Amino acid sequence: MTVEFNLLLCAAYLLGSISFAVLLARLRHQPDPRSFGSRNPGASNMLRLGNRPLALATLLGDMGKGALAVWLARQLGLEPVQQAWVGLAAVVGHILPLYHRFQGGKGVATGAGVLLVLSWPAAAIAALVWLGAFAVRSTASLASLAACVAVLPWMAWHSPQLQIPVSLMVLFILLRHRVNIGRLLAGNENRFRF
Questions:
Q1: Which of 52, 80, 107, 167 has a 20 to 30 A CA-CA distance from 158?
Q2: How far is 159 from 138, CA to CA, in rounded Å?
Q3: Is pLDDT above 80 for 1?
Q4: Burial status of residue 39 (CB atoms within 10 A of its CB: 0-12, 13-18, 19 or more)
């Protein structure tokens, strides 16, 4: 099982390294998402193109790779804590992708996909917090940060064995948002205009 676990960690990282924003932009002959807006290869920045279907496809692709990694770990009979580590590997792949010189996205959608399979109630809490925060402030980064932090108490109470890998996942996502956090504190973070 140790060999399977280690191989799956590597596979999850490589799966996470696939950037759906970059891939879909190339397929649709759109600008590279790393060259405009927030320069982040994620669904929010793809929405800045004004192409909602492309943004939705990016969101689903990024969520799907996190969900797939954990689902595969479950199908192979790995313990829940091992599934969580595999999910973390997928998120790290998204944030530091091998295929794109380790310049990836923020990891929020991939993390959401991980949670969806690992603990759907935690994913539901994160989604509700994200929607609530976004409805109030129209700021994707603030909504994402709030959703990440909201997951931690739930996991600590209901799934303490998953606390370390999930906390590390949240930490990676928070660190990837450090520039956004600075702008939020300064009061000049971008809001979405629909």
A1: 107
A2: 31
A3: no
A4: exposed
- Tell me the domain boundaries of the chain: 2-186
Instruction: Tell me the C-alpha distance between 176 and 79, whole Å.
Output: 28
89: tokens are 């590997």
Do 169 and 144 contact (CB within 8 A), yes or no? no
Percentage of residues of the chain with pLDDT beyond 70: 98
119: phi then psi, degrees, rounded to nearest 5: -155, 90
Pick the more confident residue, 71 or 33.
Answer: 71
10 Å CB burial of residue 153 (0-12, 13-18, 19+) is exposed
pTM: 0.93
Task: Pull the structure tokens for residue 26.
Answer: 């190339």
Q: What is the dihedral of CA 81, 85, 90, 96, to 10 degrees?
A: 150
